Amino acid sequence: MNTKLLLSLSAVVALVAVSATQPAHAEGKHKERKAHMEKRGPMLLSERVAEKLDLTEAQQNQIKQIFEQAKSETKADKESLKSLKKQWRTLSKADALDEQSLLDVANQQAALKAKLQVKRLQTEKAVQLVLNEEQQEKIAKWKKKKQRKARHHGGKDRA
């Protein structure tokens, strides 16, 4: 029991230390990038990708509907996650560390992130059903190339 508590406390302290050392300008850059990505929209809906995949008008419309539905279904969860991040920052800046509150917020964040990750996978699978075999193969090649490039440049190894 004491070991679990010590490990949990160590994790919380490590997270607080990391979050406290983040430069203020990094958050601003993240917001700019996120705004740009939201404005740009999903990659598969870009004209360039639609052309490379030779998507039909019907496929483009189906994919657009899938992404719009996913966006509306995840909006509330994303807002909740944003709120939890604010709570985390507030709790981590407090003079007295409230371990239980931090653990509660961290667990809620983890649950929401897992839910959003599952939804992303469901969306990806729904899009795959719209594509023909040749289009699916092209996307698979692009993903492999992107993974190799990320590993080469020290990025995460994503499966």
UniProtKB/TrEMBL annotation:
The keyword Cytoplasm does not apply. Residues 22-42, 140-159 are annotated as: Disordered. Keywords: Periplasm, Signal. InterPro entries: Cpx_auxiliary_protein, LTXXQ. GO terms for molecular function: unfolded protein binding. Pfam families: LTXXQ. Residues 141-159 have a biased composition (Basic residues). It comes from the Bacteria. The keyword Kinase does not apply. Its main location: periplasm. Residues 1-26 form the signal peptide. It is found in: Periplasm. Belongs to the CpxP/Spy family. This is Periplasmic heavy metal sensor. It comes from Psychrosphaera haliotis.
